[in-house]
Amino acid sequence: MPTLRRTQTVYVTLDPFLSTRGAVLHHFAEFLAGLNDVDFPCIWLTGLTRAQLDEPRRRLGHNDPFIGESGCGVYLPEDYFHLKSSDTIRLGRFTCIPIATPQPAAAEALEDLSRDLGISVVSLRSLSLRELSQNTGLPASEAERIRMRDFDELFFFAGAPESDISKFAGEAKLRELTLQNLGSFWSLSCGANIAKGIRELGALYDRALRYHAPRVAVAVTASTEPAAIDSDSRLRSLTTSCDRTLVLAERNNDSVPDIHAGASDDGSSDGDSDGQDSADSFATKNRPAPPTSSRPNRSISSANIFPLHSPEVWENVLATILARK
């Protein structure tokens, strides 16, 4: 761990800030620089694999832990903590606290579930490299990193009606499997749990600092509407495991910006509007329609809700975090 002067740990949903092609969106680097200036660790929460994160971590200078594959594992850089969790495994350059059961458990569970229910699914692992590239919209070398997974299994339903998908989800729950809709693809794991990952990592920070390091979540949600916030299961996980949750809303009141056609921080167009972005996305698809009410959610103070597309969003978010220093 680089230093013990840090007083707050910040858990941020990463995927809305990276395009499918890896461009940094919404001036996210400004936020990282601000946290670095005050020496606050920034923990990325992501659906990406460690292979997919290699390049973004290098480019953005990210040296803190991350929770990968949608809550499946806590990845610690080498020698980050002198204190270790009692249950760790080595994965490449990382010490990992497994939250879910490692592969091939998820692959086998998916095969069993599909066979037992008679519902056809196609795992990304089963596709040829050409098919994988076509389904993800990525070059072959980048597409391959999507299925280099330590814990969960990505798949899609082969023409299944909504009734079959509901049946599949219900049986997955009965078998204590974690099924997550990532938009274009689904994720199945044996035990992914974002809140548990945050608690495990938070306990390590607390032990290293010898006092409780407040946990601040920064998450993107569809809008400021109560139902949009209440229906976000990942946001609920953050509010139950962190001391504070700051929400960045894509839509504010009647404004509905088009985030899929936005420009990256370097001015280039993302250009991926074919619905494939969310194969590795934490929260860019599968969002509820905005309800009619405009009253903020009671569990999150209106002072902690920020319009994502505001030019001052990161200045205001950092000021809110630092106000509790």
Q: Would you give an account of this structure?
A:
With 325 residues, this protein is α/β, with parallel strands linked by helices. It folds into two domains: 9-99 and 193-322, HAD superfamily/HAD-like (Rossmann fold), CATH 3.40.50; 105-189, Putative mannosyl-3-phosphoglycerate phosphatase, domain 2 (Threonyl-tRNA Synthetase, Chain A, domain 2), CATH 3.30.980. Helix content is 31%, strand content 19%. The protein has helices at 28-37, 50-60, 105-117, 129-136, 140-146, 162-174, 194-209, 226-230, 233-241, 313-322; strands at 9-13, 42-45, 66-68, 73-77, 89-91, 94-98, 121-123, 153-157, 178-181, 186-189, 215-223, 244-251, 305-307. A nine-stranded mixed sheet has the order 5-6-4-3-2-1-11-12-13, with helices on both faces. Strands 7-8-10-9 form a four-stranded antiparallel sheet, covered by helices on one side. Mean pLDDT is 84; it is low at 254-264 and 266-298.
Give a quick precis of the structure.
Helices cover 31% and strands 19% of the residues. The protein is an alpha/beta fold and 325 residues long. It has a 9-stranded mixed β-sheet with strand order 5-6-4-3-2-1-11-12-13, sandwiched between helices. Strands 7-8-10-9 form a 4-stranded antiparallel β-sheet, with helices on one face.
